[in-house]
Amino acid sequence: MTNAELAERVDTSDEWITARTGIRQRHVAGPDETTATLATAAAHAALADAGVDASSIDLIVLATATPDNTFPATATKVQDALGCNGGIAFDVAAVCSGFLYALSVADSLLKTGMAKRALVIGAETFSRILDWEDRTTCVLFGDGAGAVVLEAPSAENAGKDAPGILCSRLHADGAQHDLLYVDGGPSTTQTVGHVRMRGPEVFRHAVVNLAAVLREVIEDAGVSVDAIDWVVPHQANARILDATAKKLGISPDKVVITVDRHANTSAASVPLALDVARKDGRIKAGDLVMLEAMGGGFTWGASLIRM
Ligand code: ACO
């Protein structure tokens, strides 16, 4: 759905949306699609790309704020659709930081030997929780899914330059939960509710928190800013991405931006952007890639990865 199409439904314009956010279009799930079907499609694509069979997956961690049902976890529906029942499968709720949280949880489970091969998925149908009459939120979000395959460290993939997650840091500040939230839920209103947001406040917190966690990971991993080949950020707003990169002295050329074509797909945005930059040849095996995200809660985090 382009900005022009959106402007037919709500009092906004392509000029306003593009100038304030960098968004030009977003994808909206069709009537037969759900978070589980999008997640399953992404999982199949990731398995094919990794060249591994679904039967070898013994862990599925699915990040979403828009599950198919209150329970069971959408991850279990994906597990069944992939035909790999029996392993671990659960959802992670950290909204736009969900993929970073899911990645860290899966990495920890692999490193402790609880599982051998994981699918980490970020999948959302935010279009279902938008108030399509609220122009301050409905222009910002889109639907989508992305996935990665992770493997436990082994003799074959060990060593200093081996692929893997080098360092992750996660944070939450529950005192800010009412700046970005959904005004419904099973335990409160017994309705699904809609996204509500105090945009300018979210913007300010996003830049400060993201810059801080990126500094933390850079310092804890013992790398220099210049050693980072690519930054794959959560895609909320082009201005947040620019301001964060500037604060850290990261060249804008190293920042993967897909917010123009996907809008904010919450937990799906980081794996979607990673996929785009791998497919167009920017991100290659051996590259040092920083992932980062911030979302409702607030929650935020970053992971440094060797591809
Ligand atoms: N179309 C036209 N006008 C609009 C629209 C719209 N879609 N939305 C708001 N406006 C108007 C407002 O009513 C206001 O008008 P007024 O001055 O007459 O009162 C004017 O535009 C400015 O509104 P602001 O909210 O001050 O605009 P701002 O420049 O802060 O941009 C935005 C708003 C884009 C939401 C920005 O604050 C932002 O990006 N915040 C971060 C929010 C975010 O990314 N959330 C996603 C989840 S969290 C995350 O992923 C990091």
From TrEMBL:
Beta-ketoacyl-[acyl-carrier-protein] synthase III N-terminal domain sequence ranges: 90-174
InterPro entries, alphabetized: ACP_syn_III_C, ACP_syn_III_N, FabH, Thiolase-like
Pathway the protein contributes to: Lipid metabolism; fatty acid biosynthesis
Highest taxon listed in the record's lineage: Bacteria
Catalytic machinery residues: 96, 234, 264
Pfam families linked: ACP_syn_III, ACP_syn_III_C
Cellular location(s): Cytoplasm
EC number: 2.3.1.180
Keywords, sorted A to Z: Acyltransferase, Cytoplasm, Fatty acid biosynthesis, Fatty acid metabolism, Lipid biosynthesis, Lipid metabolism, Multifunctional enzyme, Transferase
Beta-ketoacyl-[acyl-carrier-protein] synthase III C-terminal domain segment(s): 219-307
Example of a GO MF term: beta-ketoacyl-acyl-carrier-protein synthase III activity
ACP-binding as annotated region, ranges: 235-239
CDD domains, per the entry: KAS_III (cd00830)
Catalytically driven reaction(s): malonyl-[ACP] + acetyl-CoA + H(+) = 3-oxobutanoyl-[ACP] + CO2 + CoA
Similarity comment: Belongs to the thiolase-like superfamily. FabH family.
Matching HAMAP family: FabH
Functional note: Catalyzes the condensation reaction of fatty acid synthesis by the addition to an acyl acceptor of two carbons from malonyl-ACP. Catalyzes the first condensation reaction which initiates fatty acid synthesis and may therefore play a role in governing the total rate of fatty acid production. Possesses both acetoacetyl-ACP synthase and acetyl transacylase activities. Its substrate specificity determines the biosynthesis of branched-chain and/or straight-chain of fatty acids.
Subunit field text: Homodimer.
Domain free text: The last Arg residue of the ACP-binding site is essential for the weak association between ACP/AcpP and FabH.
Name the record gives this protein: Beta-ketoacyl-[acyl-carrier-protein] synthase III
Naturally occurring in which organism (per UniProt): Erythrobacter ramosus
Gene field: fabH
